[in-house]
Amino acid sequence: MSIVRITGKNPLNRCFTPLLLGLFLFTTVFAVADESADSQFTLRFQAGSRFYMEAEWHEAAAEFRFAQEIAENTADWAQALYWVILAELALADFGSALRDMDELQRHAPNSTFARDMVYHRARIYFNQGFFEDSLLLFRRYNDSVSYDDIETADRKAAAFFWMGECLFAMGQFDEAEKFYAWVISRYPDSPRVEISGYRIDLIKQKKIEAQLLALLRWSHEESLRTSEDYQRRIRTYENTLNAYQRRITELTDGMAMQVEPEIPVPSLQDDVDLIERARQLDNDIQAILREYEQSAGTPASGAARRRLFSGGQQ
């Protein structure tokens, strides 16, 4: 029989000691790795911010993208992606910006950047010519921002201005003018006030131009109508003159063929009056035509006009 010696020490300590030491080292490695990842994210994000402030958009987008890829939590990931989108907007890379906006919406729909994304998406739609969609998004953004929120006052004023721009682009000048006026009266300190005033002046000028164009169009149409009426009256005079001339010819031929003394001969005075009337009518027409040619197609005036509208009667 073997005898077990009691020494007061746990015989399993020799087994647990290496295990505990390994577990400690494993935990330490992960802690160092986490700390290293956080440090890398911070360094990359700071580098992106520095490039962004210096307007180095390509470099900023690259740094923010790297920070997004190594982010350890949703908040950091959403923040990095948000700044990637802003850099893409600065580069006018609207396609990439829209794709990243969709990704941000899918993976972080309740992030603090969701509301601003509505504004930026509306700007993209405006630049792409989708004015109605842009108008709806700007309105949605304004509905989500309180009038008392001082921090978002400039952005809200900008949204009202861009709503006016959408309406202006669609030719709805009266409605657009209301939004520009609202920016000026409600947000006098906004940087959009000056350009809003310029837009209002431009709208007024466009209204005056439209009125002048309508007046010119009406005047041109009226001139055409008057010219057509003038030509019609000249043709009437010519037809009447031709009729007189035919009548004179008939009378003259009839007088030449008179051989029977007993047939009544027309009064000479009647023939003289008819010939004189035809001669006078011909003179009137020639005068009207000369005046019409001198006025380059404009309505006749003076005595010729009175003859024209009185049918040749003096």
Q: Order of SSEs, N→C?
A: HHHHHHHHHHH
Outline the low-pLDDT stretches. Answer: 1-33, 259-263
Structural classification: mainly alpha
Question: What is the overall shape?
Answer: rod-shaped
What is the radius of gyration?
47 Å
Amount of beta strand: under 5%
- Amino- and carboxy-terminal Cα gap: 164 Å
Number of discrete domains: 2
CATH architecture of the largest domain: Alpha Horseshoe
In CATH, the homologous superfamily of the largest domain goes by the name: Tetratricopeptide repeat domain
Descriptive report:
Helix 1 packs parallel to helix 3. This protein folds into 2 domains: 177 residues, Alpha Horseshoe (Serine Threonine Protein Phosphatase 5, Tetratricopeptide repeat); 75 residues, no CATH class. The protein is mainly α and 314 residues long. 22% of the residues are buried. It is built from 11 helices and no strands. Helices cover 78% and strands 0% of the residues.
Brief summary:
The chain has 314 residues and is mainly alpha-helical. The chain contains eleven helices and no strands.
